[in-house]
Specification:
The chain is an alpha/beta fold. It has a single domain, classed as HUPs (Rossmann fold, 3-Layer(aba) Sandwich), CATH 3.40.50.620. It contains six helices and five strands. It has a five-stranded parallel sheet. α1 links the parallel β1 and β2. The protein is globular and about 50 Å long.
């Protein structure tokens, strides 16, 4: 099974990874995992003044801050893990890449806001749910 793990380096990501590792009967080492982090884009009016190489380096460094600990965790748990990063709005990018990658399952950590809180806060999880057809397991 191909499993997508959107990660952002937060406590919620750590809980989600712990949940997946603790439920070996559902997950385990026989699956192919992809950890995806999304780096917010530098606003176009600012990006226009920056060298493309410098901007790309910035995005890569920011992604690496999130992905490096996930790689280390995967080594400890024996997972086959690929890491990816993209630039943009997290909810839209995660949903798009989940569909394109033909993942069998996506597992996300969530803040656990109320329905009203999610509307007011514009939750990434809410956007993913609204625009993605890949089965999604949310870990509170």
């Amino acid at each position: 099974m191909k499993i997508l793990l959107p990660v952002d380096g937060s406590t919620y990501t750590k809980r989600m990874l712990g949940f997946v590792a603790a439920h070996d009967e559902m997950f385990g080492t026989s699956h192919d995992y992809t950890a995806l982090t999304v780096v917010p884009a530098v606003p176009p009016h600012a990006a226009g003044f920056l060298d493309k190489g410098l901007l790309d380096s910035y995005y890569q460094e920011e992604a690496e801050k999130v992905l490096s600990p996930v790689r280390q965790f995967a080594v400890q748990t024996g997972w086959r893990l690929e890491t990816r990063y993209a630039v943009g709005h997290a909810g839209d990018v995660v949903a798009e890449l989940a569909q394109e990658g033909r993942y069998d399952l996506m597992v996300m950590g969530t803040h656990g806001h109320s329905a009203l809180g999610s509307v007011v806060l514009g939750s990434v999880t809410t956007r993913v749910i609204a625009s993605c057809k890949v089965p999604l397991l949310l870990v509170r």
